Amino acid sequence: MNHNVKIIPIVTGISIASVHLINRLLYSISTAKDILRDKDDCYYEWRFGTIRYTKKGYGTPVLLVHDLTVGSSGYEFHKIVNRLSRHYEVYTIDLLGYGLSDKPNMTYTAYLYIQLLTDFVKTVIGKKTDIIVSGDSSSIAIVACHNNPEAFNRLILINPQSLYQLNLIPSKRTKSLKFLIDLPVLGTFFYNIITTKQSFCNLFRKYFYADYEKLRNRDIAAYVEASHQNDHQSRYSFSSYVGRYMNFNILHALKEINHSIFVIAGNEKKDNKSIVENYFYYNSSIETAYVAETKQYPHMENPVVFLNQLAVFLP
Predict the structure, then answer these.
(1) Is pLDDT of 25 > 70?
(2) pTM (2 decimals)?
């Protein structure tokens, strides 16, 4: 009996050490290709951490803001940045907790990102800026534009999140999930299970791309790399995302915003038309366009057609 009691902590210690070693190995493998780095990388020292961004081209400033899903980063816009930089001063940003930006252990909220976008435009860009935002980041941009109209110009939303989903608040289940992912060793191991190459392949096949054959191995590798940056500290923003801490009601801002707003949606994304119609219901000045044979990321899946649609609103 006593012998078994003594064995338990030893076995537990060995198990935890083994999991830790597996986590370290997965980190090394996932980040070995160093896909996310760019020759135009710059860094902004913000109050909550260092923010990585790129700057290309000359002209009217345009800020590109990636989605908030796991593995997201400025890489999301890599197929359109060079084309846009022929006519504009183009900035891409890795939001705090994503890509190559810092990832402090904290709860990430929409209000945090609203302040980041505002500070970035005012401090780094220094001029009234057009902003192109993807997915869940659309709500952040809408409120940032509403609160600081002098900092932002035109607003382009790519497949914005549904207003219903944005109203969902943290529950006991989502809070427990956040707690689990934030755990030092076991949380990292659980996070590694849901951020494998196969997991991202499934995400792109089911939600992001209409034609999976267009997806490149490099794109998947970039998402895997981004999800494992800073020794798996990317899990802190992910835990806040699944915990619903990035959600909030934007109806007041959406109704009152005076900026020109353009929505570009993938025509094969589930419920896309009803989502766009709901936005239009609360702000009838919104203009819309659809990119054929695409889902969540038309700017990645069909960048040529996406840019053609964008040129109508952002000449």
Answers:
(1) no
(2) 0.89
